[in-house]
Amino acid sequence: MSFTLAIVGRPNVGKSTLFNRLVGKKLALVDDQPGVTRDLREGEARLGDLRFTVIDTAGLEDATDNSLEGRMRRLTERAVDMADICMFMIDARTGVTPTDELFADILRRKSAHVILVANKAEGNAAEAGVLEAYSLGLGEPLRLSGEHGEGMPDLYSVLMPLAEKFESEAVDHSPVTDVVLDEEIGEDEVESIPEPTDAKPLQVAVVGRPNAGKSTLINKILGEDRLLTGPEAGITRDAISLRMNWNGVPMRVFDTAGMRKKAKVQEKLEKLSVSDGLRAVKFAEVVVVLLDADIPFEQQDLRIADLAEREGRSVVVAVNKWDIEDNKQEKLRDLKEAFGRLLPQLRGAPLVTVSAKTGKGLDRLHDAIMRAYRVWNRRVPTAALNRWLVGMLEQHPPPAPQGKRIKLRYMTQAKSRPPGFVVMCSHPDKLPESYTRYLVNGLREDFDMPGTPIRLYMRGQGDKNPYKGKRAKNAGALAKHLNKRGG
């Protein structure tokens, strides 16, 4: 990105609305109530030909203690330190408040480039507020309407000269999934697994129930308090994405809101938060399902893991708060047994014990993520697949429903990310689901693909009888010939 722009201001002045407009998507939650945004959210912004990183921040409040508001303020001040340009937003309809004056003074000291924005400036009701903004001593206020898009050309003209001071770099973070393999895979193509780079970082989503320790875990990996944490359940409301280099691997990690049972999700805001977390799963390549060691594998944990599998994402299960567990060996044995029984579709997926508080087990978690990523990208040679298929058929031939023998003739890998295989066979619609599961489990075990979703498609080859359809035609010709002779 060419530069980083942080949007700061009091609660409910319209920061998230402008953030969504700049990134072109509804990434940040927006609601009429103040204080919806609590974490720092980064996005890739586009304004004309400008490409830059924009950070949405929590509303600045006059609190310096260890309360939720105080922690939110410290997080926002860290965003100001991180950003190249700081956009200070006020509500033009409300006018300048004492809190605005306090933070304008802080920004003058902390940020080299401050752009003063009077938001909600459409209509005559905003005129007085725009004039008041001059008193903040941050230069001429820029009139904007984040909701209606007014004033965006003026914002472009202000940002353009600043953008020339920073190196330009465009990055596409969208994960590539369901990669179609155009040709049959040879023996020499098996290890062609794409390595994560700064331009294409590995995308990891951390999901789980509220208060499982997702934000604390990511902060520990980062080595700094970038995400808001605390004893209160449900602090995280957005799916926040953070770039990092973890043990030499470029990653983009999504911290998501805790997902509760649908019946317990009552507030409109929490419904938005949960759907935001589901979207993060779709953006990810590897999904880390974080469990609480005290109450693992509740119904909601199983649903989250099943969702990741259905979306075709590689899954790692991490059990948090392991530092306070007393009977570790017995507990681990019970966890593995429950995992295999409750999530058979993810058989063999990595199960790692960690402590987000102490950092113990993070290296194991990193290794599990990389192993799951490699399996998710695995490509199996066509010749090896067909040798394997012959052995599976000899060991357990397919059934013959209604006396019709099903022939499995040929197999190849059609996709990766996740691995997808096609079997050419007769009567694919009559092959029972149990036999498909038998093949999938064999693929997992024999080609070392534990835990990753595997897609297996049965495809018919059509009837091989070259005389089909010709009998009636020949019979008609013969009848015509005989009629002529008879005449």
TrEMBL record:
Q: Which family does it belong to?
A: Belongs to the TRAFAC class TrmE-Era-EngA-EngB-Septin-like GTPase superfamily. EngA (Der) GTPase family.
The record lists GTP 2 as bound by 208-215, 255-259, 320-323
- Gene3D superfamilies on file: 3.30.300.20, P-loop containing nucleotide triphosphate hydrolases
Alphabetically list the UniProt keywords: GTP-binding, Nucleotide-binding, Repeat, Ribosome biogenesis
Briefly state the protein's biological role: GTPase that plays an essential role in the late steps of ribosome biogenesis.
Quaternary state and partners of this protein?
Associates with the 50S ribosomal subunit.
Q: Which residues form a coiled coil?
A: none
Q: What lineage, starting at the top, does this entry show?
A: Bacteria, Pseudomonadati, Pseudomonadota, Alphaproteobacteria, Rhodobacterales
Region Disordered, residue ranges: 459-487
Taxonomic superkingdom:
Bacteria
A single Gene Ontology biological process assigned to it is: ribosome biogenesis
**Can you give the residue ranges of the EngA-type G domain?**
3-167, 202-377
Q: Which residues bind GTP 1?
A: 9-16, 56-60, 119-122
Q: Which gene encodes it?
A: der
Mind telling me what this protein is named? Answer: GTPase Der
Q: Name one GO molecular function term.
A: GTP binding
